[in-house]
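re: ur question from earlier - yeah i can do the single chain one, its not a big deal. heres the input i used so u can compare w yours
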Amino acid sequence: MSTTQSERLRELLEPLVSSQGLDLEEVEVDSVGRKRVLRVVVDSDEGADLDAIADVSRALSAKLDETDAMGEGEYTLEVGTPGAERELKEHRHYVRATDRLVKFQLAEDGELVARVLTVDDAGVDVEVPGVKGRKPTAKRLAFEDIAKARVQVEFSRKNKNEENAEEA
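and the output i got, formated as tokens:
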């Protein structure tokens, strides 16, 4: 049986979020003074646009209003997406990070920054950028060797269409 409010809220809200075609990533209740904030983080393989966020926010708000899951006091509902530098915790997070630059904290070998190429049930194939004119190298990381992983923001990366146009 669920013991924390966040777990009870997750059980209540997850089917509703799933029915909207999204994944429920996080549920967090914070108290700031007398105010409470319920933060709900959602995502999908295609990403969640503003319309999808608004739709799920309305649905969650209606569901919470018809239950006493948040108790009697006032609270603010915030619905959003994981953000650009999301931590990768589940298999689907790694799949969504395909072609993105990720900083891996390895269980035994320190850190590695590499681009995710493919993901399967056992691990991740990555491309380690070349240094000082050297070519990038491929590497295989098993999930059990990854202690932590976080997507990195890239400001100057060319997209595939620009790269293909230069090669032509």
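Residues 50-66 form the longest helix (17 residues). not sure if urs matches, ping me
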